[in-house]
Specification:
It is a single chain. The chain is of the alpha/beta class. It contains 5 helices and 5 strands, in the order βαβαβαβαβα. Strand 3, helix 3 and strand 4 form a beta-alpha-beta unit.
């Protein structure tokens, strides 16, 4: 996929303010964004036919958490070419290792990156993932 093709991205965060803010930042950079306020909603979208290039997933959410979501999409090979980036305030080494072990391609700690930096980091992770 070349740089001019709009990448489809699903952003999952149960904090509406953060979800809207990150969605807007990605739209500003030319991404085709589907915001989801829960992991369950994101799974419904994928089962409904949306095939994203990228998932940006929060960890701490009501219902299914981000770790369970990553595990589910990787084990069931849902959108298996998609890059998965965890974006969470859980920044402990164990959390990062767990996320990567479950199949995430990158892990960004919210508190250590501005929204614009998050977009840049996601772009870098996806660029480095090329299969």
């Amino acid at each position: 996929m070349d740089e001019t093709t709009k990448k489809k991205i699903i952003v999952i965060d149960d904090d509406k303010f953060l979800l809207d803010m990150y969605a807007m930042k990605f739209v500003d950079q030319g991404y085709d964004v589907t915001p989801c306020s829960s992991a369950e909603e994101a799974l419904e979208k994928v089962h409904g036919g949306i095939v994203p290039d990228i998932f940006v997933v929060d960890i701490v959410m009501q219902g299914m958490d981000g770790f369970s979501f990553v595990k589910e999409i990787r084990e069931k090979k849902l959108a298996d070419k998609a890059a998965v980036v965890i974006l969470s305030n859980l920044g402990q080494k164990e959390d990062v290792e767990k996320g990567l072990a479950l199949g995430a391609d990158g892990y960004i700690v919210k508190a250590s990156a501005t929204p614009s930096e998050v977009v840049e980091k996601v772009f870098e992770i996806v660029k480095n993932k090329k299969t």
